[in-house]
């Protein structure tokens, strides 16, 4: 199935303010986790979701009464037979803050999650109908050299997006958007296999993700020639 990134949607996300970064000590030890078939959230980006399953509607209702933090994780392959239970998930996920929400008349929710920080699942707590996990934050340090390299990688990504406008549309990235946000929004929305996106999430920091994205887009240009 061919997937095309919606340029207007991506541009609107890039124009939104970057979510406040969670400090390592600021992530609660236990958070609700929402497992899906593909990673949907990166630390410096935002992602919209529609919540319809009763157990996860309960999760959102509880989160809105508390700190509004939930964790997004990817289900391991072969989860289908156990989906209604608690099938295995990849250990690395991303915590997000519910920055916007709407409760619909039928009890479903639409939410906007702002990425905060990656985490590692240490264990699970089965005290709720939905899934809770004990987690440890996974910081993504960047030194001055990394920051300079990230800016160069962002410039290369802009060039590659322009060269691939037939696939991605005319994506206009405002110059004032932080490099980390640009990279992580692209990491969420550039079409790729779910496992490939999970490996991208697991990279050390935004510079490592940017390097991988550059390689991915350059490969697509080579294939097209």
Describe the model.
With 225 residues, the chain is α+β, with helices and mostly antiparallel strands. Helix content is 37%, strand content 25%. The protein has two domains: 15-138, Archaeosine Trna-guanine Transglycosylase, Chain: A, domain 4, CATH 2.30.130; 142-224, no CATH class. A hairpin with a 5-residue loop joins strand 5 (109-125) and strand 6 (131-138). Helix 3 runs parallel beside helix 7 (206-224) and helix 5 crosses helix 7.
Please tag this protein with its features.
single chain; 225 residues; alpha+beta; Archaeosine Trna-guanine Transglycosylase, Chain: A, domain 4; 2 domains; five-stranded mixed beta barrel; 7 helices; 6 strands; 25% strand; globular; disordered N terminus
Terminus-to-terminus distance: 21 Å
CATH homology superfamily name of the largest domain: LON domain-like
In the predicted model, the low-confidence regions spanning at least 5 consecutive residues are 1-9, 20-25
CATH class categorisation of the largest domain: Mainly Beta
Query: What is the count of helical runs?
Result: 7
The largest pleated sheet is described as: 5 strands, mixed, barrel
Beta-strand content: 15-25%
CATH architectural grouping of the largest domain: Roll
What is the CATH fold-level name of the largest domain?
A: Archaeosine Trna-guanine Transglycosylase, Chain: A, domain 4
Kindly state the number of beta strands: 6
Please identify the structural class as seen in this structure: alpha+beta
Q: How many domains?
A: 2
Q: Give the overall form.
A: globular
Order of helices and strands: HEEHEEEEHHHHH
Question: What spatial order of strands do you see in the largest sheet?
Answer: 1-3-4-5-6
Nearest-integer average pLDDT: 87
Radius of gyration: 18 Å
Query: Which bin fits the share of residues in helices?
Result: 25-40%
């Amino acid at each position: 199935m061919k997937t095309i990134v919606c340029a207007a949607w991506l541009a609107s996300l890039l124009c939104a303010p970057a979510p406040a970064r969670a400090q390592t000590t600021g992530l609660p030890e236990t958070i609700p986790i929402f497992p899906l078939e593909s990673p949907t959230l990166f630390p410096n980006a935002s992602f919209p979701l529609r919540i319809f399953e009763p157990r996860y509607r309960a999760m959102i209702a509880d989160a809105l009464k508390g700190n509004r933090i939930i964790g997004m994780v990817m289900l391991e392959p072969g989860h289908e037979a156990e989906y209604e239970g608690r099938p295995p998930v990849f250990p690395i996920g991303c915590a997000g803050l519910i920055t916007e929400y709407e409760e619909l008349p039928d009890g479903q929710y639409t939410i906007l999650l702002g990425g905060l920080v990656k985490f590692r699942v240490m264990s699970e707590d089965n005290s709720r109908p939905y899934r809770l996990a004990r987690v440890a934050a996974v910081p993504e340090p960047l030194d001055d050299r990394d920051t300079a390299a990230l800016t160069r990688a962002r410039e290369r990504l802009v060039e590659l997006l322009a060269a691939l406008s037939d696939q991605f549309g005319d994506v206009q990235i405002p110059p004032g958007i932080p490099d980390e946000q640009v990279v992580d929004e692209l990491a969420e929305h550039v079409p790729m296999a779910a496992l490939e996106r999970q490996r991208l999430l697991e990279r050390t920091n935004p510079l490592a993700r940017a390097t991988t994205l550059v390689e991915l887009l350059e490969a697509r240009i080579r294939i097209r020639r």
